[in-house]
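Run log // design_07
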C-alpha cells in the first residue's frame, strides 16, 4: 500500500496549491507480461464476435496498475510525498510479451499557505 495521496499524483508538472520544495528524480515501475495460452484462445474467440476484447483489457489494466504501484513504491523509497509528470509507456518486447512502464518525477511538496480576506 502506498502512502502518497492519490490527489498529489499528476501528469502535469505542477500541483495547484502546492510548491515543489525538493525534486527527488525520475522513478519508475516496470512490469513485463505475457499472454497465457488460455487467455490467447479466449481472446481469439472474442475477436470473432468483435467489440471489446475484455481478456486483453483486463491484462492491460492489471499490468498498468502493477507498474503504477511499483512506481509509487519507488517514489516513497526516495522520500516523496507527490509525483508530477507521470506517464505510461508500453512496448512489445517479444511475440506476446509486453513491457509496461510507469514513470514520473518524485517530489516533496508543501501546501502554499492561503491568506485570508483583508490580510
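design_07 sequence
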Amino acid at each position: 500500500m502506498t502512502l502518497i495521496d492519490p490527489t498529489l499524483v499528476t501528469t502535469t508538472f505542477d500541483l495547484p496549491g502546492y510548491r515543489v520544495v525538493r525534486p527527488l528524480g525520475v522513478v519508475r515501475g516496470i512490469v513485463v507480461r505475457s499472454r497465457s495460452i488460455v487467455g490467447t484462445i479466449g481472446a481469439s474467440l472474442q475477436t470473432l464476435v468483435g467489440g471489446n476484447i475484455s481478456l486483453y483489457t483486463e491484462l492491460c489494466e492489471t499490468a498498468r496498475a502493477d507498474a503504477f504501484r511499483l512506481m509509487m513504491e519507488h517514489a516513497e523509497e526516495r522520500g516523496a510525498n507527490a509525483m508530477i509528470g507521470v506517464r505510461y509507456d508500453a512496448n512489445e518486447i517479444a511475440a506476446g510479451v509486453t513491457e509496461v512502464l510507469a514513470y514520473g518525477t518524485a517530489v516533496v511538496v508543501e501546501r502554499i499557505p492561503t491568506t485570508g480576506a483583508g490580510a
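The two ends are 41 Å apart (CA to CA).
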